Amino acid sequence: MRTKLSQFNFSLPKNLIAQYPSPERSESRLMVIDRATGKIEHKLFKDLLDYIEDKDSIIINNTKVFPARMYGRKEKTGAKIEVFLLRELNRKVGLWDVLVDPARKIRVGNKLYFYDKNNKEVLVAEVVDNTTSRGRTIRFLYDGDEVAFQNILKTLGQTPLPKYITRPAEASDTERYQTIYAKEIGAVAAPTAGLHFSRELYKMLEIKGVNFGEVTLHVGMGTFRSIEVEDLSKHKMEAEYYRIPEETADLVNATKDLNKKVIAVGTTSMRTIESAVTASNRLKAAEGWTNVFIYPPYDFRIANSMITNFHLPKSSLIIMVSAFAGHELLMDAYQMAINEKYRFYSYGDAMLIL
To answer: What is the value of pTM for the model shown?
Structure first.
């Protein structure tokens, strides 16, 4: 029987979509689901300490969000255009894949001018190709060095909050829409399950004997793009860059040998480790591009526990979590979360699936 997109639809009250994070990272609510018994508990994220033991391993995505949302002015008309940076294609010539809005006004050959807060022109870009209905390839016309260019982007860019956060980005988002362990620049969206770890909780887990293994997956817009097909076997994910270092592969395999928990933090960490599995179900060091799409039924080969947020209906994220938790149990848990007024999406609450 084919898994269908409509199985992952549900009605979510708009007031449950979190517009701000909780005042303290680890004070978010935590729903704990035991797959073996079907038991569901309501805790705080800091209670994670009660569920993770000595020699368990937590796999975290160390990608770092860059200020990807910029606003430019179109030549001649001066129309305001949002430019959302997706991926750098060629550093030497300043070539980027971007999304533009409104797209109907932007054609190949157009120039876009970017100004600082003092209304001084600091950057110019030229549209060189159409990629999708909203997608364009642009070339930044800049002849300074790479460090100076990156500093300009930081000045011009804003924290790329998802569109369902309807307020403008604020200064506090620069820090809060970033995990405490973020270091590898390249994501246009945060791996949000990791936002709940405070430095104090991280340290307390280390003291308890829990190991942390880092992977990198640079989250692209494809993770959040709508699925347009009812038959999920026909959906194609956009490729995202990932890397698994040798030390993380060694840690995970040693943890499995001890029959301890391997906890994937978020769908991005889960996709990463499921992209580099040997025939004997061992994790291997790897680097490249992954377009793996995980949907039920699926045999997870590395992680046996998962931390995740509450996701959009009919998204690739809820579909993956359903494959891990079991469809009926997860949809029951989501209805319970709505009834209990859990906060949803990027700045929302968390779920631990055991």
So the answer is: 0.91
